[in-house]
Write a structure and sequence with these properties.
By secondary structure, this protein is mainly alpha-helical. The chain has three helices and three strands, in the order H-H-H-E-E-E. The protein has two domains: 92 residues, no CATH class; 53 residues. Helix 1 crosses helix 2 and helix 2 packs antiparallel against helix 3. It binds zinc ion (ZN). The site of zinc ion has 8 residues, from loops.
């Protein structure tokens, strides 16, 4: 699953280009944050309604609103953090070592390179990471970009 998600991530970057992909990741992350805030409003509304309700059925529905809001808020906050962390992890590697330009295109050589144990071409590759080859559109420099180890949730393409 980890490698599948890394392939989806690499394919998303290759399809859109780094800059558009990164922008989309930031938008998605902040939409998840807005979702989290909406869920917290539902929780506050549920707590407020629980103080007003008198019947058992009302209290049960208010409790369900609170629990549902908490679950949705936790999920949305987790997605916010995950999306933002993936974007920042790759964004930190997006500066061209040749000319300093921020952003890259995915190179032709290998969409995903090492197996994570440190390939000969990129000896700095750490365990648990795969990588893609970035190409600078300005100076044609190539460098490796490590991809984060992703869990079962699919990344936003
Ligand atoms: Zn460059």
């Amino acid at each position: 699953m980890k490698r599948t998600n890394q392939r989806l991530l690499a394919a998303g970057i290759a399809k859109k280009g780094f800059r558009r992909w990164y922008e989309r990741q930031l938008i998605d992350a902040h939409l998840w944050l807005v979702g989290c805030l909406v869920a917290m409003i539902l929780v506050a509304a549920g707590v407020e309604l629980a103080t007003l309700g008198t019947g058992t059925a009302e209290r049960l529905s208010d409790g369900a609103l609170v629990l549902g809001g908490l679950a949705a808020g936790a999920y949305a906050f987790r997605r916010y953090l995950r999306t933002l962390m993936v974007a920042e992890f790759i964004g930190e590697q997006a500066d061209c070592p040749g000319c300093g330009r921020h952003g890259f295109r995915v190179g032709q050589q290998s969409p995903i390179g090492s197996t994570g144990s440190g390939s000969p071409a990129y000896p700095h590759a750490a365990a648990g990471f795969d990588e893609l080859t970035a190409a600078c559109p300005r100076c044609k420099c190539h460098w490796p970009v490590r991809l984060p180890a992703l869990g079962p949730e699919k990344p936003t393409p």
